[in-house]
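Weekly modeling sync, notes
Attendees: S.R. (lead), two postdocs, one rotation student

Agenda item 3: backlog of single-chain predictions. S.R. asked that every request posted to the team notebook include the full sequence so nobody has to chase files. The rotation student volunteered to paste the first one in as an example of the format we agreed on. Action items at the bottom.

Example entry:
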Amino acid sequence: MIIAETTHVGLQRAENQDSLGRKSIDNYHLFVVCDGVGGLPNGKLASETAVQSLLDAFKPKNSGVPESLQLAMESSQSSVMSARSKPLGTTVVALCIFAGRAYAGWCGDSRIYHFRNGALQWMSRDHNVLHDILNKGGSSGGRYVNPQALNRFYGREFRVDSEFHSISLEKDDIVLLCSDGLSNFLMEPDIIHAVTNNSPQEASDLMERKLLTDEIGAPDNFTWYIIQI
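Predicted structure, as returned to the notebook:
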């Protein structure tokens, strides 16, 4: 497994409110990326709390990987909700790789991408107003005040559901976990081309350089893991 990672404040924010972390237990490999919710204070606290709690709570030997990941994400949400500084919020994406499979969990609009043979195989679905409207059969021609607004994240005054997905992996498959500081500002074809035509570190360096150009100007923090099997 080859891994590249980066986290960067960008060019327009005063503080990096993204956090990332990973740990390995025997042959279980867990990766987490969290993004403090924009528009709320204490985003850095929220993302750091979510990452650390999720890593601490993940105990795959006690149960199967899907159950362990779900329990760890529930613990992470509880820790963020219990934080004393309010209001706060964070998105979460987590991925455990074990025995030829990847087990994904997410809440919010940070993303997980799965690539094989130069093509995008699967991408997590953002938890925002627009995706809910489209999933319910709403008209694509409608007008909405803020279609990108999150409707799920950790830190709300009530519990929200994370979403889970399992992926079969093959040699040379690539998985990308990222905050929306990447997916909102680099076009999807550019992400696919960078990740599938370069080594993980080369792809990471290339995407960072593109985000930091004058043309894009890195308006948001950006964070990711690129994992090649």
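Discussion: group reviewed the output briefly. The helical segments are 43-57, 65-82, 129-135, 180-183, 188-196, 200-211.
Action items: rotation student to repeat for the remaining queue; S.R. to check formatting next week.
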